[in-house]
Design brief:
mainly alpha
Length: about 150
């Protein structure tokens, strides 16, 4: 089974998964809008110095990505497996920024202690699992393995 077939498997999700998918979508939508407006300074502080792109561009592009992912999670239920995989990948890709915030002791969003930043680090894998579970992407992957 090729990647396109794996991403287009139709799986049934239950009401809890749908509610969590929509909640995650709204969370991403608000975070994306925050990137472009009221939380821009905090997000700028989280961009690691080693990123080879201007920090403001990283914040804008990640904000746009979050808006697109969030909107897609809410509105495009037909493509939820694909969008769930994309959201999980996005959470993995931004994880180095969270690690950098912890390592450098950067204060943002009230995360002003190592403990708070460490807890934030632990939450990132939860977001990955949340995206895969709530969209049925994990179940689709299991089905594709057995096909």
């Amino acid at each position: 089974m090729n990647i396109k077939e794996r991403l287009t498997i139709v799986v049934k999700t239950n009401k809890a998964q749908n509610a969590f998918r929509i909640f995650l979508g709204l969370f991403l939508l608000m975070a994306g809008i925050g990137h472009l407006s009221w939380s821009r300074v905090e997000f700028l502080a989280q961009v690691p110095a080693w990123v080879p792109v201007e920090a403001d561009m990283v914040v804008v592009l990640s904000g746009i990505a979050e808006i697109l992912l969030g909107s897609s999670l809410v509105l495009l239920s037909r493509y939820r497996v694909l969008v769930g995989c994309a959201a999980a990948l996005f959470f993995v890709l931004i994880f180095p920024g969270n690690i950098s915030q912890y390592v450098t002791g950067t204060d943002a969003f009230g995360l002003n202690t190592d403990l708070a930043r460490g807890i934030r680090l632990l939450f990132q894998p939860v977001l990955v699992v949340w995206a895969l579970w709530s969209t049925g992407a994990y179940k689709a992957w299991q089905i594709s393995k057995s096909a």
